[in-house]
Each structure stands twice: as C-alpha cells, then as structure tokens.
Amino acid sequence: MTPRSPLEPHRAATPLELFFDLVFVVAIAIAAGGLHHGVAEGHAAEAVVGYVMAFFGIWWAWMNFSWFASAYDTDDVPYRLAVLLQMTGALIFAAGLPAMAEGHFLVGVVGYVIMRLAMVGQWLRAAAGDPSHAQAARRYALGITVVQVAWVLYLWIPVAWQVPGFFFLVLCELSVPVWAERASPTPWHPGHMAERYGLFTIIVLGESILAATVAVQSALEGGAVLNEVLGVVVGGLLIVFSLWWLYFDRPMDDLLTSFRRVFVWAYGHLLVFASAAAVGAGLAVAVDQATHHAEIGRAMAGAAVAVPTAIYLVSLRMLHGWPAEGGTRFLGLVSAGLILLTPFTGQAVLLTGLLLAGLLAVKLVGGQGGSAAVSRQVSSGVQGPIQIGPWRRSVAAPGVSSRGP
Q: Rounded to two decimals, what is the model's pTM?
C-alpha cells in the first residue's frame, strides 16, 4: 500500500467512497429521527444528548475513513474488502442507534468497534507499504486499538457514568490523529478532502429535506390542511437552500494551510454536520406542532429549528469565514443572534428562512469583490497552496508562488 500524491491533479471522490457514504445516509436518518421524536414528545434534553452521542460515532467513522482514503486509496482487493467490512460495521452501528437512545449500547458499540478495527488493518497495511509514514501509521493502529478496548470495557460501567465516560472516550478518539500526525504527517489531498466534506454536507442537508418532506406528507395524510404547514414549508425551503448556498459560496481547499487550521477545520465540521441534520429534525418537530401532534409549545418547536440553524452559521463563520468587503464580515453572527429570537414570534421557521435569505442577499451584493476574486481564481485553473502534510512546507500549484503555512 503506497501513498497517493497530494499534488495529484483532478482528484475526485471514487465510486467506493460514494458507496460508503450511502451507509451513513441511513445512520444519519435514524439519529435525526430519534432527535425529532424525542423533542416532539417533550424530552428535549435527553434527545439532544442521545443525538450528540450517536452523531459523533457516525461522523468520526466517516471522517477517519475519508482522511485515510485521501492518502492511501489503492483500490485493490484487500482495500475494498476492508472498506466493505467498515460499511458492515456502520450498518450494525446504525441498527443499534434506537437502543442507544434508551441506554443500551451493546449493538452500537459492536458495530462501532468493527468499523474501527477494520481501520486498524488499513493502517497496518500502510505502515508496511509506506516506510516514510510508517511511524504515524503504527501510532494510528495502536491508538485506535487501545481506544476500542476501552469502548468494549465501557459496556460494563455503571449507568451513572455512561455519559461522562462516553465524552472521555470521545476525547481519547480525537487525540489519536493529533498524536499520530506529529510523527510523520500523512499525504492527504486538500482538494479531495474539501470535496469529501462538501459531499457530506450535501448528505446532511438532504436528510433535512427528506425529514421535512416526510413530516409534511404525514401531516396531510392525517387530515391537516396545507395552510397549517405552509409557513414551515416555505421557511424550511429557504433555510435549507440558504444553508447550502452559504457553505458552497467559495472553494475550501485553500483554507487547509497549517496544522492548526487543518485540525480546527476537520474537527469543527462536526458542528456543521450535526446542526445541519438537526435542522431537518427541527422542521419535522415544527410540522408536528403546527398540526397538533407534538407535546410541546410553539416556542419550543421554533427553537428546535432556530438553535441548530444558529449553530450552523456560527460554526461556518468560525471555520470558513466570510468576506469582509461591504461590511458583511459579522453579518452571519448578527443573523445567528436574530434567529435565536425567532421562537418568541410564533413564526420561527418562516422568519428564520427570511433572515437567512436576507443574509445571503446582502452577502452576495456586499461581498461581490471577494467572491468574484475566488471565482476568477477557480476559472483560471489556479489553485492555492497545497500541503503534503500539516507540518510541512506548503507547495503551490504550478505557476503560483509558494508560501508557508
């Protein structure tokens, strides 16, 4: 198993990567469905904790596979079989999500450990075939194995320790790549990773559309009239369309220019992904409340949409930034604050959608200079600095001067 070049031109997601993503469509739908029903039934706190725990497992398994594939996707038979094993583990994990919401972790942990141990085998292959990065690969294999042993032991801890124990193990999981990459950074591809994260963003936004559509369909089949859910439908469309536009307003690979920026960008996307999927659950809650099928009030149902939308905006501002031209630099943060006030108006979904559409309109008009510059750079085929690894010197594309991280 030899590494792929981080300077490889026209690198794109492979059919196997796209097939792998389909498994996570199922897992995200189950996690968001649990959040929807928990909030609608008046158990918001428990539902949010369960959703965060489930979504971390989904995101972390997807992210580890994606970064490894960016560096070592050899597409040979052993690699494909290992990925299929990871997909099997992901399906088992998804099947165990409803039980996890009730405090039963056996099936979920078994699926998760299968996913992660398959990843250990991949890293051991990389260590054997790539001497220049063997130390990092061995650290990955060792770190993942130790944490999986801890996950198995987690099944026997007292119920009172389950939540704090879970978040302790999350910190252990997050620490493994930081420790491993310090040895010898793996040669991931910036453009490929930007595309992979963009594809996952589309998946979670698609889940939001699906959740809202199913909720509206169920409401209409149950005897509701369109007038009861019209505000949610219009506002929901504006929200999802605006969230997509704001994310894809500019290329992302030029942001991966230093060790700190790479890890903040990669890890910070957990908030982007989780909040985007939670928006769909919130829209379903809003439909339930509008048609009198929820056990919560209008303000709580509005908050189920407004809070994840605001988190999405703040996270996006932190990770990607927005152009400063035309005074648009802090409009995202201001919009997030206004969105958090919409649950008190009685029309949270519609007003949230209108605020996002207004933000997007102002951003497009006031920030045209920055966006146009990026567009010209992309259309001319010029790329920004590309890194071989987070600690290495940046290497610019042909015809572009190099600059350090």
A: 0.85
